[in-house]
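ok so i was messing around last nite and threw this chain in just to see what happens. nothing serious, just curious
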Amino acid sequence: MSRIPFTIRIMGRYSFRRRIHFRNIISKPLTLALQTADPGAARERVAILAARFVIVRADVKTMLEGQRNLTGVEIEAIFRRELERQLCSWLSDAYADAPWSSSVIEEAARHGEAYRQLRLPDPRHDMDTFERTKLDAAKRKLTGNDLTPVWVRPLVDQIRDTLSDDYVTSTLKAIGATPSEANIAAARTHLIRAGASACTRVQRVFDDDVLDAADPVRAMTADLGELPPAVAALLANAEGVAASLALTNLPSPAPPTECPFAIYDSRRFSEIIEDVLIELKQDKIWKGDLKQQRRIMQSFAWITGDRELGSYDHRDVARFKNGLKRLPTTFRFGRPTKGAMSRPFEEVITEIAPITSATARNLKTVNRDLSTMSTVAKHLALTSWKPRIHNVLIMDFAGATVAIQESEDAELRPPWKKEELECLFRSPLYQGGGAGKNRLKSNSPCPQVWHDAAYWAPLIWYYTHACREEICGLEVADVFDDHPVPHIFIRENLTRGRDGEKAGEKRIARRRKIPLHDEVLRLGFLDYVAAIRAEGHTALFPELYLFDSKRGGAQFYDRAWRHMVQWITDRMQVEVNDKGKGPDIHSIRSLGSSFYEVDGVNEIMRADIMGHARSGTNAKHYSKRIKTEGLEVVLRERLAFIDRYVPEITKHLEPAPIRLLPIEARSRVGSGRHRRIRSDAGMSRKDGT
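result:
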């Protein structure tokens, strides 16, 4: 057989050709195999040929990759370099005299268990069931606590991610080794060995011989002996290479040593916002559409620079709080992709005028945002913000809330007076006006009373002292008209919720049953309920829930309430606070509570009607009158209580047959003011043009 030339061209920095001749490798065994008459011998010869071809192919692959296996000197250099780096990191934490310094030994033991898991075969794959059980058992033995399996496993993932191909490649380049696929896999194993060894050796960090040593690292590695000259030379060269590589933005192999959390989570805060919202909603901690909570979390990420979760610490609480106080009350945050939050905070803040007393944000709003972030921090304290030291609070947003010391009635809206509400109840809306937007006008040729939220809500607010949304969000099923004492049940329902979830209660004390006052019943409220039920609606005031943009009380304010307030203020002098704000819907609740500010009032009954939490041991734990006497008895007592203290200011109203406008026109009362006739319009009518 003639020579078979095999030409290979390798493209790289240099191009070259290499000819490999197969005469002695292939032709001789193949010739012998073909010449023999023995089939067994032929098969043996062919097998030899195949084996030799594998060797050739391996040699070619090695040549193509430029691969060279790690030497013993290089392996020791990799090990000693990583060992020293990790020991220095642990020593920095231990001797920093920081809040987490005393937990270094415990943390090192936990990291050591994670490294032990990674030393198992194929560390890039997840552990199997047997290894999970073994890991959990070792952990309980180590800590003495029956903790959940997730205690260590995120740390295994973190270390695995840290030992990325880029990091291992930079280590190999630093000592002059070839970063081939095989060498990267081998070097990663030795880096894991070094990390495990560092975690074991740092258990002696507070031993006397280490504390007294001039070089604690040398003291903890004394058993390894002096570095061989060849290894020392490689490490010296590696430090020079590392200094030059630092300028190329290679990824850092380890988290900052100042991280106060059990693990360093490299995700940015903005990346976990939606997950936190979902989890807190699933835990029933937050309810509704969560728009406000999402905006607050986005503003925290914006003000603090949206950094990696592991880089946050207690200073970011003050940074967030002070950032909020630098924004005026009229500031619009926008969204992360549009508006102010799409630009760096420090850039936006330079364009804002200095804050004055007139433009300063209300401290209650600042406290609200801090309270929201306190809930987020407590949730993250189970995972990404879990502190290194047990029961140590790192992100204390609640502690940063501002103590608000106000003078009496400072900045608070004044309450309504009963004479002012009586003025409203004498308006055409209650005694007969026009239809649609003319219900507060008295010049209608055929005055009528129309029934909807605009008619009933103020009456119910006055006689029950309930909140705006509690009444606007009632459902037909919340009105118990077939009970011996007709009443409303204020509770969570689907009308006040979103996405098929019930919502509405701020706290459990707000869930209460309030008897319907005789005046409300006299004016035909139960007939109205029957009419809405016959229409097939779920909401008691369905016109307030036609749109998603404004729902419930917000829709009522826009359609009806602002015009009602205008009617009153056009006829009476209404008190305003130092910022020029007069009473609002919630001020009716203040009026109702003030009726009970007299001697002899039963505070338990007052709290139950108002929806306030009871105070005192007897009221909280022993008074169970509904269970001992029955609901009917208690409702009659509550009705008598309301009758005794709340003045009746609607006796002048006459009941009217229930009249319902088309649902789109309900509660749209319009202004009570009459439009002035333009002078030019009058002249036009006179001259006939």
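not much to say yet. Residues 1-26, 141-151, 241-257, 680-689 have pLDDT under 50 and may be disordered.
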